[in-house]
Structures are given as structure tokens and as C-alpha cells.
Amino acid sequence: MTIKVLLIEDEKNLADMIAFFLEEEGYITERVHHAREALQLFPQFQPDIVVTDLMLPEMDGNDLVEAFRQHSTVPILMISASTMLNDRLRALHNGADDFLCKPFSLKELDARIKALLRRSIISYQDKLVKEDKQAEITGHVNVNEYRRTLFVDGVEIEVTHIEFEIMKELYRNPGKVFTRNELMDRIKGSERAYLDRTIDVHISSLRKKIEPDPKNPRYIKTVWGTGYKYVI
User: Fold this and answer.
1) pLDDT of residue 27 exceeding 80
2) What keywords were assigned to this record (predicted)?
3) Of 70, 79, 124, 207, which has the fewest Cβ atoms less than 10 A away?
4) Contact in structure between 6 and 40 (CB atoms under 8 Å)
5) Whole-angstrom Cα distance, residue 122 to residue 209?
6) 63 pLDDT more than 70
7) pTM score of the predicted model
């Protein structure tokens, strides 16, 4: 599994050094130097972990963490030249998962990243197990991303790769209206032309597999003129 790291560091030389090291270790790394750039890149890049400096142009690192936490539980490692206890406590209180003081060993940075990812994966797996149990009790549609399986009324349903990816995106964001273009971008990225307008075909196939009455869908709703949304 390739890990994606979003690095936010305004010291260009340090950012280049960290990014080079992480890429040598096998991570996919996107580096930016401003908080505004990080907020713009985050939804498209969808990092597995964020490494951010405390002192940034335009926005304090703590404010950036708070902005991320409004819509994401991604692990966040704060780095800073500050050794003051209050700075560390504030960062952790605002939503950072760990704090590393400069100067630091790149090997330690790697170890901190791996530790945060281990905790995140364990927490995520626990959440999926809990969701599976809830699905069996309530009989709702359930998507298990870890096992890449779809359940209806506790029964595993066979779906294609693209059908699963569509259902995963809808299920992650109940109530959110997705345009066809948004779904194509999230599923295929740069290969989106492959799907063209066949999103409708995949949605129709999904409805036949999960809906009690595909002609009057309960879960995957059409928003006329826009796209689709998932209703719990």
C-alpha cells in the first residue's frame, strides 16, 4: 500500500529535503509552502497523513489543523522549532495527533509517521467492524472498505470494481449531491474519459443490486439536473 503524505513547510530547503527523504522511503509526497495551497490541494490529493509546520505564512498551523478537522480525521503531525510546552499542548488540543520539535532526525520523522498510521489503521478497522455489526442489526446497506465488500441486509452482494468505487464515495458522504463529473473524477482520476456518461449505467446496475424497488430507489436518489446522492 502506497502512503500519500501532504507536507506543508514554508522553508523550501527543508521541505525539499523532507520530501526527497520520504519519496526515497516509498511515500507519495505533495509539498506546499502555504496554508491556502494546502487547503486547496487536500480534497484532490486525499492524503493518508499530513505533516505541517506550526509557523506558516497567511495562516497559523493551529488554524490550519482546525480547518482540516472540520471535515477530516486524517492523522496530522505538527513540526516546529518551538520547544515551548504551551505550543505543543495547543497543537494537540486543536487536533494534531503528534508534535515533533526541530531539528529532528528524518528517521524519527519516518517512525512518527508510521506510528500515527498504525493507530489510524487500527481505529479505522475497529470502526469498520462496528459498522458491520450495526449493518447486521439494522439491515441497512453497508460498505466495508477494508474488505472491499458491499452488504445488504447483512448479505454480501457481488459488485464490479467501478460499482464498488461509486458506492464507496456515496456511502462516505450521505446526503451529499455528487455530479456525474465528480464521481468520475473520484473513481478514475486522470482516466475519467474511460467512463464518459456511463455513470448512469453503473448507478442503474447498483440499484438493481441494493434497492428493494429499483424503479423507486430508497438509497441512491437522483437529484434531477445535478447527479446522485446516498440517503441513509
Assistant:
1) yes
2) DNA-binding, Phosphoprotein, Transcription, Transcription regulation, Two-component regulatory system
3) 70
4) no
5) 31
6) yes
7) 0.55
**pLDDT tens track for 30-48:** 999 999 999 999 988 989 8
What pLDDT sits at residue 129?
56
Q: Which residues contact 30 (CB under 8 A, 6 or more apart)?
A: 4, 5, 6, 7, 41, 45, 47
Residue 203 DSSP label: H
Q: Tens digits of per-residue pLDDT, 155-208?
A: 888 998 889 989 999 998 899 999 988 888 777 644 444 444 578 889 999 999
Return the exposure string of 39-76: e unless at least 16 CB atoms fall within 10 Å of the residue's CB, then b. Answer: eebbeebebbbbbbbbebeebebbebbebbeeeeebbb
- Identify whether the C-beta of residue 33 lies closer than 8 Å to the C-beta of residue 15: yes
Residues in the chain: 232
Do residues 163 and 201 touch, judged by C-beta distance below 8 A? no
- Whole-number average pLDDT of the chain: 85
Cα-flanking dihedrals φ and ψ of residue 17, to 5°?
A: -65, -45
Cross-strand pairs, 99: 78
Contacts of 53 (CB under 8 A, 6+ apart): 8, 9, 10, 11, 61, 78, 79, 80
* Residue 195: Cβ within 10 Å count: 19
